[in-house]
Task: structure prediction
Amino acid sequence: MNLKTRLYGKVYQFQNVTDVLAKASELKSGDTLAGIAAENTLERIAAKAVLSDLTVHDIRENPVVPYEMDAVTRLIDDDLDAEAYKKIEHKTIAEMREWILDGKTTGNDILHASRGMTSEVIAAISKIMGNLDLVYAGNKMHITATCNTTIGEEGVLASRLQPNHPIDDVEGVAATTLEGLSYGIGDAVLGLNPSIDTFDSTLAIWNLLGEIRDKYEIPTQTCVLSHVTTQMEVLKSGKGKADLCFQSIAGSQKACEAFGISTDMLEEANALFRDRGSAKGKNVMYFETGQGSELSSSAHNGSDQQTMECRCYGLARHYEPFLVNTVVGFMGPEYIYDTKQLLRAGLEDVFCGHLHGLPMGCDVCYTNHMPVDQNDSETLLMLLANSGCHYVMGLPQADDIMLMYQSTGFQDIAAVREIFHKKPIKEFEDWMIKWGIWENNRLTEKAGDPTMFF
Amino acid sequence: MKDITEKEVSEVIYADNIAHIEELEKMKKATPARIGIGHTGARYKTEPMLRFLAAQAAAADAVFSEVKEDVVKDLGVFEVRTKCASKYEMLTRPDWGRIFEEDTQEYIKNHCIQNPDVQIYFGDGLCSPSIQANIPDLFPTIKLGLEDKGITVGTPFFVRYCRVNTARTIGPLLNAKVVCVLIGERPGLLTSESMSAYIAYHARPEMSESDYTVVSNISKHGIPPVEAAAHIVDLLDEILKKKKSGVALKTD
Amino acid sequence: MSEEVILSAGIDVGTSTTQLIFSRMTIKNTAGFGKVPKTEIVSKDIFYRSKIYFTPFLSSEIIDGAKVHEIIKKEYETAGISPKDLSTGAVIITGETSRKKNAKQVLESLSDIAGDFVVATAGPDLESILAGKGAGAGEISKKSGKVVANLDIGGGTTNICYFKDGEVYDTACLDIGGRLVKIEDGRITYIADKVQDFINKYQIPVKIHERADVQHLELLTDKMAEILAQSVNLCKPTEDLVNFRTNRLITVNDPVEILTFSGGVASCMDQEYDVLQFGDIGVLLAKSIMKNRYFMEIKTAHAMETMRATVIGAGNYSMNISGSTIEYTQKDFPIKNLPIGKIRLENEADIEKIGTEMQKAIDYFRDDGEEVQIALAMKGLACPGFLQIQEIAANIMETYDTLFDKNIKLILILEADIGKALGQALKRINSKGRDIVCIDNISCNSGDYIDLGQPIANGSVIPVVVKTLVFQG
Result:
């Protein structure tokens, strides 16, 4: 395995695969903070050059966290499809990149092959892709999954309605939910982040969202984003139900432990929600990720944040989720500093998620302590709408009044659907037409009146 | 003169053609979210768009602006800075935002009384305006309240480019039983001058994050500073008596 | 914080029936980690309902206090509740009964045996409010956003309460009820005075001591139903409405959108009874309301409780809890029946006038500088500064010290969330060492009375009952 190259006569030597991956990664403040980023841009390119010559085999055999010490590594490696792996084992990362971009290679070809790729392999391929490569390749992949409805069909841009409230006030949550619905938002999920992670608040919001879904016969799914243990407890109590089980996940066992989860726990949750939840289909999990969460719990094991993020997707795919999204700009400027880093992270996360065979969405967002503003969010939203992103977040004027950050607004999603000829999920679209919100593939005048439902 | 921010967003309906306007008014009372803002085509109307931009600008400015020297002077305290040399460093290097250069540590030591029961200091954190907005009411109320209880209060000072974890250095440096950092919170669009108090018993480098007792949302839009201060006084008293803070205090 | 469960009692001694309930209230800090605590009542669960007794009387003017005692005592025993288990609750004497000669006495003695902080309440307005809440009309209004009126039609009176967006909006009371005419063995044995006047006016063939004729009685109840329709503005009011007024009529102009019915007469609406089964006109009145054209046109909703609306109101809705950041030095609770003196303190300019305002409020309650214990209520500035708090505290303490000796407690009831800050500032300058209670998040007015209960949730909050218009006249 070669870890050395020359650029303009200067020799660049890397220590190991983890080091190559980290230095080949596009600049992120988190990797600088961790002290593992390339020292300068030329060193970054040198790392990309070295990486491009490594084989799928080289990378599989050198996971960034050793197999023996990490449950996430074990799960990713054990899940590999031996046949698919055998076909690509000796290909270089450069060859994989070109094969993916090749006009003859279809999305299904790619998704079949990716079952033989570990998360590090997928990270490696993305690291030698430019932003346009990511969009070009990402557009090929459509990953469907079914809860009550089916996400991921070609030509669809779905949305999560995020009706958060500072104190989970039921009426306040209902108000925002109706406002969002009146703009045709919520086909991916009606999903609330509770301000207090308790049995009572989870149950109350489950019941509220379920009531709204049933009362207006909305073809969608419901979810409360409390801790997985809270949701399991409520479901087991028999007092209420939801369609989807949510959990934030991370790319190493240690980082998962910091989130209070394990692979077994997720397994149990998946089985429980399939068995006793209210979903009709078999895809009942909803995961969120975001670059930097491993470093923030000192559980990155010397690996770069984009590779660790990819390992989240490797973990996620084991559970056949209905939704996975990166909350790309939530972790703060320590991890993703500015617009350039944010755009890159959004594009690579969505691409890598898709390459893992996940129905991937993105919370296009930023916090107020990043030098980023709403124009940047709008730009990334337009980019993602063109790179096959399956769903994005809908908030009232993009503002989350509980988590104090900005994402994308109801109107933003409506505009992007109209510009890029994207539609909501079919059954939901029919529902919108029934209410007179949507006509000729765009919003009507009537849209935006939350009181139409009374 | 016109000021589009004069009324709270929650008091204004921008949407047209609302079927039941009184219902929308009730909905808006139930949430501070920006609902009932309407649309033109699939885009925002101009005034709500400008209001969003104004609120986001206020929040961003709160983070990226500096606490003016006059403000520190008016508080009558001295100023030090962490290892960070700029806002950029403060935002990207949390590891530097919690430590001080050697000579700064000496300076602090020389300008403060030693071994106080409670050491209180102020940090800009992620919200510079929170210092001017809250400290003049927050700190004197805490100080007076503690002194009434016979608790000694250390010399207050201001830390620029400050992170919460400066407490891990300040605690041992001044040999304080309890450290209380009053620090600016990350602003949102609803408020850009909120502050939190992070309190730790026996603060030290190897302490855990869960050892902090936190009081957040201190501002005229949240918990009034004087009332928060009165609450903090009792918390500090309890922490001193029980000799623990954070999760350990809660599960007591 | 873990939950704390407290027990509450509701006792209603009405014109025709006496009943009791016990409920469990769960108190919890609902603020998340890192937040200033916010303790709230998160659930109310009625776990014991007594039998429904006829209220015993010694004569038409005197309640049989001893019998009432006996009933209550027996129910406590059956429920396995001892008065010391109760943290709160209310005894209410309602309807005509509250006008009996010994009503006040019975009420107060009942509240003594019922529990330390089971308060005595009465008054037609409060009755209307409690019945409306107990019937669930407040909840229906909150959920639907509609103006909801509850008519609690009892033996002697009809208590009306309007709710708008879940809040009490207006109240009224009429002397119309099911037991205003009584029938024994087919003969009319009692007609209340106002009803007699009414009968005379319209020459309705209903006469005392004569045989009761159902058709004639129906003429009467149909007309009573008509007046009830007038009372909630379903049709034009007449002089009759004014004549049947107990104390006040509805004054707001908003039309009622949903009606609920509670009280004994309402319970006759759902079930088939023989018309004279209860020896009164209750069943007939229920029928008359149901077939009244105005009542048929308006939307009605089922009350959550009919017979027991008032008693549930008393048990579940009479108590509030204070804000969670408060200050007190007082050790002995409860403190009962404190008259409220309201002081204007809403903005900065009011601070310097506190002294004169206090003087005025206190003088209203006493003659010649005698010592009286009252509670001072004020709205309070929403976000006062450090110096303002010191100034407010200084002005209050200075005036209080000149007016009262140290044995009079300083009790402040604030609306704004500044109770702890002001309380600490007061303690600091409390040179006489008097007891201080300074609580917030409670709204009350001059003329109200207030009861403060034993602090709960580790002493962080105080249960409060604000009593509006107790025993007026």
